[in-house]
């Protein structure tokens, strides 16, 4: 999997996000490492020309399912928001992940501890995509928000091959787009190995429209910064490891909306 990462979201987006993710269906004894190549600029991937899917995950600790299909506790007090933007035509996925309430290191038999699983609500299922774990990974303060954002291009791997074949082998993003409710997102920690928080993917047409409009705005801004052949390009541009500013704005709006939904759920509980 080729990955482009940003280490932090905008301050507005960080403040807006109000729920957390977790990986609930894969448990294991080994501590996960960052995905190979995740920090290598040579492997950076830009967002696609357009998105074909957009999803919000409100992840909570009361949705964890272990490998045996049993409901088990996650990390009490943890919460988070996963935002996913997919392009099935280019097999590129972008994400923005925010998690709070974690106190321990990540732990998973896969190459990272943060995934999308092919799993219905209340059911276990194999991971299909492994994401760079939200940082700072070594924080022991539950008040610290851990975040991860970037874009990746298939083919996807998870580093987990219980039957000799990687669970990401052959997986394509059109499978998510065909049935988002059949996929969950989560993250594992040493004190919640079955999953700290978890939630199902929910398609959002509004978010998809915002993301594509933002990509168009970024393209227009790039065009304005272009100079004649032989000239020098000027203006403030994003680096190869950052998401376009317009797309980050879409993340901010989505995180705010997801946070409001999570808050209403907690107040009504």
General description of the model:
The chain is an alpha+beta fold and 269 residues long. It has one domain. 21% of the residues lie in helices and 25% in strands. It has four helices and ten strands; from the N terminus they run βαββββββαβββαα. It has a six-stranded antiparallel beta sheet with strand order 1-7-4-3-2-10, with helices on one face. Strands 6-5-8-9 form a four-stranded antiparallel beta sheet, with no helix packed on it. The chain starts with a strand and ends with a helix.
Brief overview:
By secondary structure, the protein is of the alpha+beta class. The chain is 21% helix and 25% strand.
Helix content: 10-25%
Largest sheet: 6 strands, antiparallel
Please count the helical segments. Answer: 4
Task: Give the termini distance in whole angstroms.
Answer: 40 Å
**Widest β-sheet, arrangement of strands:** 1-7-4-3-2-10
From the alpha carbons, calculate the radius of gyration and give it in angstroms.
18 Å
Overall 3D form: globular
Mean pLDDT: 77
Q: Strand share of the residues?
A: 15-25%
Low-pLDDT segments: 5-43, 227-242, 261-269
Would you list the SSEs in sequence order as H and E? EHEEEEEEHEEEHH
Class computed from helices, strands and strand pairing: alpha+beta
- Please report the total strand number as a whole number: 10
Domains, number:
1
């Amino acid at each position: 999997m080729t990955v482009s990462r940003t280490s932090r979201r905008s301050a507005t987006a960080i403040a807006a996000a109000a729920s957390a993710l977790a990986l609930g269906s894969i448990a294991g004894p080994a501590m996960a490492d960052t995905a190979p190549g995740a920090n290598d600029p040579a492997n950076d991937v830009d967002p696609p020309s357009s998105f074909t899917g957009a999803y919000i995950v409100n992840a909570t600790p009361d949705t964890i399912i272990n490998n045996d299909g049993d409901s088990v506790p996650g990390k009490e007090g943890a919460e988070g928001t996963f935002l996913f933007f997919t392009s099935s035509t280019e097999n590129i996925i972008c994400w923005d992940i925010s998690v709070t309430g974690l106190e321990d290191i990540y732990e998973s038999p896969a190459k990272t501890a943060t995934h999308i699983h092919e799993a219905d609500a209340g059911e276990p299922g194999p991971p299909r995509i492994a994401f760079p774990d939200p940082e700072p990974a070594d924080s022991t303060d539950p008040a610290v928000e851990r975040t991860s954002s970037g874009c990746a291009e298939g083919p996807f791997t998870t580093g987990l091959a219980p039957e000799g074949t990687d669970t990401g082998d052959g997986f394509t993003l059109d499978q998510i787009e065909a049935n988002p409710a059949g996929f969950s997102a989560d993250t594992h920690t040493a004190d919640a190995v079955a999953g700290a928080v978890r939630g199902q993917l929910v398609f959002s047409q509004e978010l998809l429209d915002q993301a594509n409009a933002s990509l168009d705005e970024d393209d227009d801004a790039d065009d304005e910064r272009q100079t004649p052949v032989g000239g020098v390009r000027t203006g403030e541009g994003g680096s190869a490891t950052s998401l376009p500013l317009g797309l980050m704005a879409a993340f901010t709006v989505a995180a705010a909306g997801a946070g409001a939904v999570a808050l209403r759920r907690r107040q009504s509980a």
